[in-house]
Structure prediction request, 227 residues.
Amino acid sequence: MKALSPYPGLTTQPDARARQWAIHRALQRFLRSQFGRPTGLWGSLVGRIMARTRSNHERAQWTISLLGIEPSDRILEIGFGPGIAIALASRLVRDGRVVGLDHSEVMLRQAEKRNAVAVQDGRVELHHGSIAQLPRFEEPFAKVFTINSIHFWEDPLLRLTELRGVLKPGGMIAVTLQPRSRSATAATTSLIGDELAAKLRAAGFTQVTVDIKETRPLPVACVRGVK
Prediction:
């Protein structure tokens, strides 16, 4: 029986199928890299997609709600992307400041544009930089959070330990992550939550809690810890 092509209308010869799948995998890798670190025209498009995707807004709103932000808090977000969560947090901070760090210049420009008024008012401060080389911040933070970025970090345990160092005593960290692979299930989210909780404890955080939110296409986990 002749094999069916995953791309109707294209040849199903073995060599052609292998080339088609190679192209498909290369495209997947390229898109994943753009979501991890948007660059150029494609990165600009990825940023716009992230800013318009409902699930991104839901994750940001949920994470912000779990932080218990006070008007005078200093807050740090790692991997702010197009600046959705930065905007939400800045609305709750009147006397404090929301600081963001992202390694994509494309995302920095989009986030600056989205938060232009808050930046001008001094309530938002955005930096281009890497989690692997944290800037020297003038003051410690009351809250640190990151959404769907920790899976791109090298040596996340070390980075979490360093983030603990920029928190003031009693400060809170929140790490939110939603699985995106085709093979992922609700059980994958629970496993991710447990793994993140173990990393936070190993990094020195206490009072570690795991929250799961039922969303589509899969539940999302937010793990919090206290310094």
Observations:
- Residues 1-12 have pLDDT under 50 and may be disordered.
- The first strand starts at residue 74 and ends at 78.
- The radius of gyration is 19 Å.
- Residues 14-36 form the longest helix (23 residues).
